[in-house]
Design brief:
This protein is of the alpha+beta class and 107 residues long. The chain has one domain. The protein is built from 4 helices and 5 strands. The chain has a 3-stranded antiparallel sheet, covered by helices on one side. The chain has a two-stranded parallel ribbon with strand order 1-2. The relative contact order is 0.20.
């Protein structure tokens, strides 16, 4: 299962020509339609309540172990300790709760 929350800027910032943007958006729609995925958008209206400024990945491994990977402009940080990963997962769930439903970005 892949649960994804993208910042609204990922959808609105032009990258490449219009044809490139259309292809990228079409691929996101294909991703959202897969049976094992969820795609949500963290809207601009979250303002300062948006919890992450840079990409964060949370993995749930066999035996419910957590692993996180956070990325900045200078480096990435992999944390295999559930104690450190748990607060990031909690923050992700809070963002997930207020993000737009999957139907909104697909529309």
């Amino acid at each position: 299962m892949v649960l994804t929350v993208l910042d609204e800027s990922c959808l609105r910032r032009p990258v490449g020509e219009p044809a490139v943007m259309r292809a990228q958006l079409a691929r996101l729609i294909e991703f959202a339609e897969l049976p094992n995925t969820t795609l949500q958008v963290a809207p601009f209206s979250m303002g300062e309540h948006r919890p992450f400024d840079l990409p964060v990945t949370v993995l749930t491994l066999p035996k419910r172990q957590l692993m996180t990977y956070a990325e900045s402009a200078q480096r990435g940080r992999l944390d295999r300790e559930s104690v450190a990963a748990s607060p990031i997962l909690t923050t992700y769930h809070q963002m997930h709760a207020v993000a737009l439903s999957q139907k909104a970005p697909v529309a």
